[in-house]
Amino acid sequence: REMSVGPLTDMVTTINVPVVGSAEFVRGDFFMEWGISDMLSTIEARIFVKKTIGELLFDGYEDTVMDIGSSLDSEDDYFEEEDEVEKDPNKVPMDKFGWFYKRNGTSWSDGDLSMHTGVDDMSLLGKIASWNKRTRTDAFPGDCGLVRGSSDGLFPPGLTSSTDSISIYSTDLCRPLHFTRSTTQDVHGIPVQKFDLAASNFANSSVCAENACYNNNIPSGVQNVTQCKMESPAFVSRPHFHLADPFYKDQFQYGVHAKEGAHDSSFWVEPKSSIPLKVEMRLQLNVLLRKVEGIEYLFKNLPEVMFPVFWFDSVATLPEHMAGSLNMLVMLPTIMQVCGICSVLSSFIIFFLVFLCKFRTLTIRKEKLKPTESENIIKQMEYSYTKVPVK
Questions:
Q1: 83: pLDDT confidence band, cut at 50, 70 and 90?
Q2: Residue of 194, 231, 235, 238 whose CA lies nearest to 216
C-alpha cells in the first residue's frame, strides 16, 4: 500500500464488463440477442460503472447480470445427485465480478502446469510439458494453440548465452511471449543479458505472417484473447498501445501517450546460470466495444472502440543482499577449475621436490662411501713398508 499512488477506495469510472460480455456472448443468435436486450432494459443496465479500485480489482462487486448468470448455472446442477457432482477447481467464481477476484491461492486462475525438471535432460529444464493435462489449447488453431515455451521463466543453465530469443508461456494469454536479445546490462554488479518483448508478439498477419492463426483480424499491435479461458471481448496490448497501429491512439483525443522504456517488458538474465535477476512486465487489458444489431438497448448504435481498461507495471528484482551469493554461485565453476588446476600443479611440484630430495640423498650417500685421495695414499703407504721387530 505504501508503494501505491493512491488508496483502494479511489473511485473509477470504467467498462461494465458483465454487460458488455453478455452482449458479445449472444452475438449472432437472434433470439438470445432479443432476450438479452429485454433483460438489460428491464434492469436498466449501463455500459459504464463507477466503482472503487478495490472492488474492480480484488474485492469484486455484485452485478445483476452476474447474479442471473450464476442462478442459471446453479439450475443446471439442481437435479444432479450431490454425490455425483464433482466441483471443478478451474471454475471461475460467478458470485461477483473483479479482475483479480479470488485469484490468490486458487488453481482456476493458472490451471495445472507440468514442466520438465531436467533430471533426464538438462536442456529441457523449465520447458512446459502440458497445461491442464493437455499439450495444446482450444483458444487458437494450428501451431498457435500449442503449449510451448518456458514455465514462469525457468531456463537451462547456459541457454541464454547461446540463444538470441527466449519464450515464456502465459496462461492468461493462452500463448507464449517471445523475448529477443538486446543489450548487456548489470544488476548489483552482476553482468546480465537483457531480452526485450519482441515487437512481433501482438502483430497481425499483415506484419508477421506466422501470427495468422492468432486471429488478430484487427489493426496490428493488439492480441486477441477472446477465446482464452472464458469467452469475453478482451484484448491485450502494450501500455498506451505502445508499438501498435496509430489507429488505436487516434480513437481518443487525449490520455494515450506511449513511451519507450516506460511501457516495455523485458527479462534480465544472468547468461551462465540463466537465472532471471530482473523482470519487467507491462501489459494493458482492453475491451472491444462494438454494436450488436439484435440488442436494441445500449448496443444498437454503439461505435466500435478498443477501450483501455487498465495496465499493470510489474517489476521484480533480485534483492541486493542476495547478489553476493548469486555471484559466488556464478563464479563457482571457475573457482573449481582454478582449484583443480592448482591441485594438479601442486601435485607435480611436490612430486618433483620429493624426487629431488631423494636424488640428493642418494648422491650424498655415494659421496660418503667413496674413499678420498688421502685415504688411498695412506693405504698405499701401509702396503709399501713392513714393521721391523724391536730387540
A1: very low
A2: 235
